[in-house]
Design goal:
two-stranded antiparallel sheet, globular, 20 helices, mainly alpha, Glycosyltransferase, PGGT1B-like, about 425 residues, two-stranded antiparallel ribbon
């Protein structure tokens, strides 16, 4: 009997279609003249800013479906503008602070819009937006005492957090809660208790981290879990070598990242996966320790990332001051080699995600949107500074694909806010 010809699955056909679209773009680039190549690799800064400022001033009727995500729209747009090195005029600043103030619940936290119930995700977006605006008026508008009480209400005995009253418990909730508390200088033992156990229960056999226990490893949740474990000083408990194994295989033939095994490339994972690599570069000593002593994975350790001396000794043992971990982490010298192809990722972002009319997108054939604009640009910033010993020092031209004018502002890789805005917020809240 003749053997049957295997019929490709829907997933295989979709993968081939994406690869075909991407490779056509790359073929066009390779066969273009030098001048055309230069233009193709140029970040369309002016077009992106036009798109972003337009969205900050007015959104059309189609955005009504995102009514419960309005602080997210603020964050995606404001952070993208800041990455591009621009700032708001005084009127837009006042309007932003006023609007987000009306989203703040009297019992703590921020809702998706005025009068909506507080939610951890929109609270994270609102806090990061106000930090990105910066200045006394924006930072002092955050009611930290009621926000802390909201975080306490969301905390669960398992160590996880609920996204909102009666809402889901997942790794994203842990990250948003711990990130908010850390950057506002209100993180304490009570909020941290058992969080590490919950995150650890979500690391899968593949090495990545799922949204909940016994779910599939996912790029966004992996970033959230890893960043959370750093902020609570328990990153050594993760199986970091397996996590790296999972991450490195998420960069595919298209040069961008996929979010899960056997899924399509997506521009937003330029940050969710690329940002995870930026975090791992600074915890290399724990990875080395696990490779030498594999039985050390998941157990208690005397190693700490808190109170790190200036020389960047990640194994200094002292009392944990949770609110200094984010600051000490960014001042620590990276100790790991490069784990992903930064030039390849920049190629995918610049050639495949930029829309001609401004804004960035998931992949060729998709429409631009503010979410992908934010995270494609965040990933591009990670690429620019990934090889640097110090994010505040301009990177050498060799690290960049395309003209040096593409250079974006550096971000704090744990919080994904502009680094100089993070420092301003850190000083402001530490003095309160």
């Amino acid at each position: 009997m003749e053997s049957e010809i295997p019929v490709p699955t829907v997933t295989e056909r979709e993968q081939w279609m994406v690869e075909n679209s991407v490779f056509q773009i790359y073929d066009h680039f390779v066969n273009s003249s030098r001048n055309v190549k230069t233009q193709l690799l140029k970040l369309r800064r002016d077009k992106h800013l036009e798109y972003l400022f337009g969205g900050l001033r007015h959104l059309g009727p189609s955005f009504c479906v995102l009514d419960a995500n309005r602080p997210w729209l603020c964050y995606w747009i404001l952070h993208s503008i800041a990455l591009l090195g621009e700032s708001l005029d005084s009127e837009l600043e006042r309007n932003t602070i006023d609007f987000l103030g009306r989203c703040q619940d009297q019992d703590g936290g921020f809702g998706g819009g005025p009068g909506q119930m507080p939610h951890l995700a929109t609270t994270y977006a609102a806090v990061n937006s106000l930090i990105t605006v910066g200045g006394h008026e924006a930072l002092s508008s955050i009611n930290r005492s009621t926000l802390y009480m909201f975080l306490q209400r969301m905390k669960q005995p398992s160590g996880g957090f609920r996204m909102h009253d009666g809402g889901e418990i997942d790794v994203r909730a842990c990250y948003t809660a711990i990130s908010i508390a850390s950057i506002l200088n209100i993180l304490d033992d009570e909020l941290v208790q058992n969080v590490g156990n919950y995150i650890l229960s979500c690391q899968t056999y593949e090495g990545g981290i799922g949204g909940e226990p016994n779910t599939e490893a996912h790029g966004g949740y992996t970033f959230c879990g890893l960043a959370t474990m750093i902020l609570i000083n328990e990153v050594h408990r993760l199986d970091l070598s397996r996590l790296i194994d999972w991450l490195v295989f998420r960069q595919g033939r298209e040069c961008g990242f996929q979010g899960r095994t056997n899924k399509l490339v997506d521009g937003c994972y330029s940050f969710w996966q690329g940002g995870s690599f930026a975090l791992l570069r600074r915890v290399g000593s724990f990875i080395d320790e696990q490779l030498v002593r594999p039985d050390n994975v998941g157990c208690c350790s005397t190693s700490t990332v808190s109170d790190i001396p200036e020389e960047g000794d990640l194994n200094a043992s002292s009392h944990v001051n949770y609110n200094d971990i984010g600051h000490n982490f960014i001042t620590t010298c990276p100790v790991m080699e490069h784990l992903f192809n930064s030039h390849a990722l920049q190629q995918y972002i610049l050639l495949c995600t930029q829309a001609q009319e401004g804004g960035l997108r998931d992949k060729p054939g998709k429409a631009r949107d503010y979410y992908h604009t934010c995270y494609c640009l965040s990933g591009l910033s990670v690429c620019h500074y990934y090889r640097s010993e110090d994010e505040e020092t301009p990177p050498p031209p060799s690290t960049m694909l395309g003209p040096y004018s593409n250079l974006l502002e550096p971000v704090h890789p744990i919080f994904n806010v502009i680094l100089k805005k993070y420092y301003e917020a850190h000083e402001f809240f530490r003095s309160q």
